[in-house]
Design brief:
It is globular, with a radius of gyration of 19 Å. The protein folds into 2 domains: 223 residues, Alpha-Beta Barrel (TIM Barrel); 62 residues, no CATH class. It starts with a strand and ends in a 7-residue tail after the last strand. The strands form 3 sheets. It has an 8-stranded parallel beta sheet, with helices on one face. A two-stranded antiparallel ribbon has the order 9-10. The chain is of the alpha/beta class and 309 residues long. The chain is built from 12 helices and 12 strands. The structure holds iron/sulfur cluster (SF4).
Length: 309
């Protein structure tokens, strides 16, 4: 699942950005010119499953539309995903042109239930209004070949307000293809700001079951990313997806005693460095799960919800 950063600049300045504070200056922008990106990608050879175009903010690349067209044409069998803050789509001309390119998945992040919360997190005044206007345009111009995913990254500033954020999403954008709740990745700026933005799995755990009970049927699909299985109640396991790269996660020696290790995402290495490993307790009780042969989403059902750990 290659993650290709096509642009190092961003029009937001999020408190939990996973890029390093110097990322915008670290990369020679010349390497991100259209021709250089193409040259670099060609050296990858065949790309099978998914290409994630990220940044910085990919949509502000001066050749973004040209690049997107190229990726779509060059890899016709591959999923192409754009991870974006959605702000550029508030410009109707840009949005219209973008959605002439078919078969693309757009992941747009909303960080708060109102402008104050969202803009405090992005540290850019007006970003909420542009993102919301952008999502309206995405829904206006997309066709059935496109997918829109709304992402909510859970940090100290918003984790107690998830119900309100989901309420905003359902009221404004009930037709989104899915909503994903992502536990923060404590690297880059997020790691540096750990004292102010960091939360633990333990803190967030009790908020999740009532949220899923209330919202799971209202959205087409709800997912949880970046949660090791032992950090969530087992009746939420069917929402758990394994999405972190193998080199980003690890297991503790005690995980070898866990009956569900083979389905578990693992633990983000930076979480262990900053928080420690006390929360990760091997699961010894048998849970009646139904599995499928899908590395990213192995558990599809819990057969008996009345059992408890
Ligand atoms: S104990 Fe380890 S393997 Fe088991 S669910 Fe937790 S992190 Fe995953």
């Amino acid at each position: 699942m290659p993650d290709i950063s096509i642009w190092n600049k961003c029009n937001n300045n999020c408190v939990m950005c996973t890029n390093s504070p110097n990322f915008q200056n670290e990369i020679d922008s010349d390497l991100l010119r259209f021709e250089k990106i193409i040259q670099n990608i060609k050296s990858f050879g065949k790309i099978e499953e998914t290409i994630n175009l990220s940044g910085g903010e990919p949509t502000i690349h001066p050749d973004f539309l040209r690049l997107l067209k190229w990726f779509r044409k060059q890899f016709p069998q591959t999923k192409v995903v754009v991870a974006t803050n959605g702000r550029m789509f508030c410009y109707p001309k840009f949005a219209r042109e973008c959605f002439f390119i078919n078969d693309v998945i757009f992941e747009i992040a909303i960080h708060g239930y109102n402008a104050r919360m969202h803009d405090n997190i992005t540290r850019v005044k007006g970003s909420f209004n542009q993102t919301i206007a952008g999502i309206h345009n995405v829904l206006k111009y997309k066709n059935d070949s496109h997918q829109l995913e709304i992402r909510i990254i859970l940090i100290r500033q918003n984790y107690k307000y998830l119900d309100k954020i989901l309420n905003l999403v359902i009221n404004k954008f009930p037709s989104v293809d899915r909503v994903v709740l992502l536990f923060q990745e404590m690297e880059g700026v997020c790691g540096e700001n750990f004292k102010t933005v960091g939360i633990t799995y333990k803190e967030i755990r009790k908020y999740l079951p009532p949220l899923f009970e209330k919202w799971e049927k209202k959205f087409k699909e709800l997912r949880l990313y970046h949660f090791p299985l032992c950090t969530i109640d087992f009746n939420l396991w069917k929402y758990h997806w394994r999405t972190l790269r193998k080199d980003e996660v690890t297991f503790l020696p005690s995980c070898n005693k866990c009956l569900y290790k083979k389905y578990c995402l693992g633990i983000h290495k930076d979480y262990l460095k900053l928080v420690g490993g006390k929360e990760f307790i091997p699961i010894r009780k048998k849970i009646p799960i139904k599995t499928e042969d899908d590395f990213y989403h192995p558990i599809v059902e819990i057969k008996d919800l009345n059992q408890s750990r």
